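Let's study a protein:

___
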Amino acid sequence: MVKYYFLIIMILTLCEWSFSAPKSSRMLTGSDTLDCTKTVFCHSLDSLPSGAEQLGGTFSEEGFQTTDIKSSIAIDLGTYIAAGYVEIEIKGFKLGLEADTIGKNPILSIWNVDTGDGNCKNCAASFIQMRFHTPGAPHPEGSLLFRLTSRNTEGSSGSHEGVIEAIDWDPENWYTYRATWTENLGTGSNLMLDGDTIDAGSQPNLVVNGGMRYLYIGDDIYQGPGRYSTLVGLSYRNVKVVNSLDTTSVVVSPQQKNTPITFSLIGKEIKLIGKTPDREKIRIVDLQGKLIKHLELNGAQLSWDGRDRNNKLVPSSLYILLPFKQKISTIY
């Protein structure tokens, strides 16, 4: 079983117990309406995100516009996400869009490897890909494809390829797509359009292989330039990636007696930290890795009164919660 590790940083202050939503260090947004709470990556796409690579296309206040069949953005999220979702708004879908002759046109994908040199047709990889079909594809024009693929190091492959029938596309309407995945990629993933689930994985034995990290808007070029293509005339805006097992920051005050802090870990299943016991030992350490106290997890909740192993209140500082056997060096 793949073990997911989590990190919870607590800032101890002299105020009352309170909670503050964490803000990602990679949060980048030029939009006042985009909710970037608890995101790994967040951007309005009115400009090129810092560190991202652009191949064609233009930016405006409305977002990223594809101007040719090579227009794309490649984004390294900087961390592997074992379970989470990517969400984006897209406008411009209609029949008769300019594309290549194959008709299989990626509109968004997320991978656990960098497709970089375009030599990833048979590479050991896991990925989620959304396509829009144009003439030349083996599916009706205007239909969508939700692909979940996992390959191991021996080159064997498994995929779920769900075809969604074409709808009455309005080229002036913004459509919100959300692709969700879990460790069980083949059966724990789904695609949503404007809040409705339009396809779900049905292929067992597909796994994430460490987590998703590389986000591609437009063509992911995984089979090399020119194999597939971006659709011309689309607009993209308000993209965000959320880690379902993300870190939680909490502002607490152990100086207020008899008021322990209790909070829930993010994630649907307690097995995210190991062997699926009802109670699991957790360590609190300081930034030097010194053990402060052991705690036990009840279900998905954890409670700490701000005291060390000797029942003394700890000073205001940053403290880290991590699984019992995880080394402090693995979080830096």
